[in-house]
Amino acid sequence: MGKKVLYFITSEDITGVELASEHTGEDAVTILLLQNAVYQANKTNKMVSKALDKNVTIVANKEDVEVRGIKNFISDKIKLIAYDEVVDLIFANDTIINM
Fold this sequence. Notes:
Elements: E1 4-9, H1 15-21, E2 28-33, H2 46-53, E3 57-61, H3 62-67, E4 79-81, H4 83-91, E5 95-98
Parallel strand pairs: 1-2, 1-5, 2-3, 3-4
Helix pairs in contact: 1-2
């Protein structure tokens, strides 16, 4: 079993999601979308769908989604978490990659 790797993404740039979805090996990959990166959690985003199909876990910050008024556009496969849960997620992973 590999490591738990968290991709910490705050930008609207799709590059972080692309890199995380291409992460190979036995590592368990999670993508955390914060700030403007939550726009990438849109149901129509093909790169996010591709990552989900590869068993990459994607979570988005609930408060950032709500502030931007996009809750109804978020994929059902993406878990929304509060800021206090972000800290738990960080400590649950072996490696953090900040994008």
